[in-house]
Fold this sequence. Notes:
The protein is α+β, with helices and mostly antiparallel strands. The protein contains 44 helices and nine strands.
Amino acid sequence: MNLQRPFAEGLINRIIDAVPGYLDKAAEFWDELVQKFSSFLSDYTQNYDVIMNADKILMGLIALVVLVPAVTVFVLRRRSNKPQMMARPTTPREAKKAAKRAYKSGNFVRAGELYEQAEVYNKALDMYERGRAFGKMAGLYANQMHMPEKGIEILEKNKLWDPAARMMANMGRHAEAADYYFRSGKQQLAAEEYDKAGDMLKAGELYLKLNRNEDAARCFGRAKAWAQAARAQNVILVEFKKAIEGKSTPKDVAKFQDLAKKTAYFFKQAQDYGPAADILLSAKMPKLAAELYLLAGDEAKAAELFLEDLDYKRAAELFSKAGDRRRAAEIMAQYHQKQGNELETARYLVMAEDYLGAADIYAGQNEYEKAAQLFMKGGDSRAASEMFVLAGQTEKALQIFEKTGDLESAIRLCEEAGDDSALAGLYARTKRFFEAAALYQDKGLFDKAAEFLEKVSAEDPRFAEANYKLGQILMEKGDFPGALHKFQIMASRVPLSAHSLDHYYMLAMAYERNDELMYAMNLYQQIMAFNYHYKDVAMRVNGVAKKLAEHHGAAYNATRPGSGWGRPGGTIAERYKVVKELGRGGMGVVYMAEDTHLGRNVAFKVMAEEFKTNQQMVASFVSEARSLAKLNHPYIVSIIDAGEESGVYFIIMEFIEGKDFKQLMGKNKRLPVAAGVNVFMQLCQALDYAHGLKIIHRDIKPANIMWTSTQTIKIMDFGLAKVMDKMREGRTVVAGTPYYMSPEQTLGRNVDHRSDIYSMGVSVYELLTGSVPFMEGDIGYHHIHTPPTPPTHLNNQIPPELERIILKCMAKDQNQRYQSARETFEDLTRLQNQARS
Length: 837
């Protein structure tokens, strides 16, 4: 039998399979191979085939000796070249284990990083040192071990100047950082660090090498290294002169002269008067150049007006005798400056028309008014205005600001000084029309105020307030239709709340003055609901009621309790007997009545008088209200009937024992999360049912959701919002608040069932947090643009998944919301199941 071949092949396969393991495994298999082969020879010595094929066996053994190491090396190289996707250690213990593996593999830097992650800093330092990662060592010392000096020492020892410089800069040790940057050859960074460190001389020298001449001149000037400053500034002057040669404008000439003055100043401070004089002369300022020639002792150019011994007094006398009093004054100013007589120096500088030099001296002596006047003469308007402010002469400072076009500085100055007259004009010039109008209104200049209020744009957050102020002005002038229009614009932006009663009181007054009595009555009653004792609102309600009675007679009184069928016991439609009044609102009066045919209580809603004027709309209302009677759902208040009798339009609804959530919650109260989820799910079921019938509520809010004695919800007024919108077409009247309106509803666009989903999200947000998402400012703008505060920030008991569901309902974009109430319900069901499990 030829047994040796399959046996050898099996051994080879086992070795190859073991190769991807560790090297010691390969060694073990090799030992096993030798042992097996020896055993094989001893067991089968008598086997003829074995003996006959001994030469083949020897050849196979030799082949194995060569092939096994080769295959091992090949596979191990393949494995070592293959990227290893290792999970990042998440605990110190895992990091230590990973560090040990990295160390064994010779990856010292990685081992150091892992030890640092595990906070085993001594081992991390050892690994970094072995891996020559001195920058990481320094960072560990500085950032983790709070031994920055040790880190710097390591970097310095290893001549790692650049990281050493960065570390010094981060520590605020700019001078040392500059030295290191300089050593690393980064001269620009070194210059900037010397600049920060206040070593202006070194900074200037480096800036000069880098051709940053302006910075160099500045630094040399601050270091009082006048000669170096002069040379750097002179380079700037020369370059500018070349740039404007043959095409200079008056502005270029003026700038060139300014640069020449500055350059000459540096040369003068360096006592290098000759070049200073040459520069001023080249800038066509001969009188100033002459002063420096005199200082330089250039008798020819000074026309022998300076004495060889620089006798200032004598020189001044000579200039004076020659009729050059300015030159004489300049020399005397220099003389007094050397003597330390500041005020005398300033006086002579004025005579020499060196107004800026004199102004600086007077400012230093707290002579602010003189300094201001001289700064003006010298052309430094900004400095002059500052001096006038210090001198308490704000009017003059303001004139300067206006002249130079610096209106914002002028505004700040007027605000600080309380100068309203000038401030109003400045506001107008800077298009801050609201502020300008407010100032004019405070001064009683109402026409002027109205002019600027009209200019406030609709994008301005104070647009609503501007229209409110305009309405007030127009009311004062007796323009009641105009005032009403402005108040209506205001009402479209500002919701009725305890904070806006003044605004809506004025709107109600405007309605009353325009004989829109039902609108006025509606608003006065809503104001009373917030504050019964607000101003004279109770008297106004009575007054409007009398006017309505005069205008409408019995038709109006019929909707009031205590007259006709409206009294307890009164009957309408030969069926419904009034028991008591339940409440009043924008849509009319609601009574509890007994259905005498069926022996049950119903809610009997009488529509407000204002809706009787449009018979076509009324007929449409009755028809649509009756069509809503097809809604039959346990979570929706059913509409039983609708009709008209003796000019009174009514709706008969299911009577619910309970309170709406607005009454239940009160102010800043909130539902337990579990109860809130239960209400949320019931809302979803009710809306899913109604939306399936193509009926949209349009006014979902806590005040329209009843909580019954059976612990279930009942949604009221389903679908009536659309009817009421038609009835109010062309009018601006409060029909609830915009706190719950979707963005598309706020913008007046066509809405679909997703608008109800948005309002549901806002309602649940309020029930769980105790607050609507947007309470202040332009509520409509917020609904369109402003992300709501996450509900978990107001109630940390809300689970993250529930927050996600609420915020998805409230997405600004309709396509980003839930596309049906059913989807919302399914997510809530999953959430509830997870909570139970």
